[in-house]
């Protein structure tokens, strides 16, 4: 289970940062950023874990608890997105860094350090406005990163539900844009939407068929 030891060891204002949606063929990539103002209380900490390990109901509960922590001043929560169009223009890695930059900027005062899940943190100053440190499997290690992973996942899933209403027939509510067999079949049958990511082979192949 994640804990707060990395944040305490680092000292200062420490943000956890994580993303959701690097692998899909459609929709934005979302980043979450969370700063706790002191160690989270036990009730909140029990709700936090790697978002992939949580059920949708548990993720929503954790997200609601994070929003309450933000309202009460116990945490600051930020999020950022890079659109499908930006992903097509920049590539998915650079677009992910852009989403992270936007998420961190929403925190208000820039943190002293961003703990980023994974092993490919953006290091150039223009990619993130503070020092960074990679934490492999950080969403299962750091409470701040776990919280950020929940923010990113919940907000991205909500966006894909909206797109499902706008673009019926693709099943966005079911697969969230990931390249499932049913999604690939819908692409071949209906062609890409504006929410599909150009530069991803299945999308580009479908676009050729539909002109």
From TrEMBL:
RNase H type-2 domain segment(s): 12-211
Cellular compartment(s): Cytoplasm
Enzyme Commission designation: 3.1.26.4
Keywords tagged on the record: Cytoplasm, Endonuclease, Hydrolase, Manganese, Metal-binding, Nuclease
Gene3D superfamilies: Ribonuclease H-like superfamily/Ribonuclease H (3.30.420.10)
Cofactor(s) required for function per UniProt: Mn(2+); Mg(2+)
Chain residues that bind a divalent metal cation: 18-19, 117
EC primary class: hydrolase
Keyword Hydrolase assigned: yes
Membrane-crossing segments per the record: none
Superkingdom per UniProt: Bacteria
Chief site of localization: cytoplasm
Keyword presence, Lipoprotein: no
Entries under Pfam families matching the protein: RNase_HII
GO molecular function: RNA-DNA hybrid ribonuclease activity
Entry's cofactor comment: Manganese or magnesium. Binds 1 divalent metal ion per monomer in the absence of substrate. May bind a second metal ion after substrate binding.
Catalytic activity reported: Endonucleolytic cleavage to 5'-phosphomonoester
Family affiliation: Belongs to the RNase HII family.
Task of the protein: Endonuclease that specifically degrades the RNA of RNA-DNA hybrids.
Annotated protein name in UniProt: Ribonuclease HII
Provenance organism: Roseomonas elaeocarpi
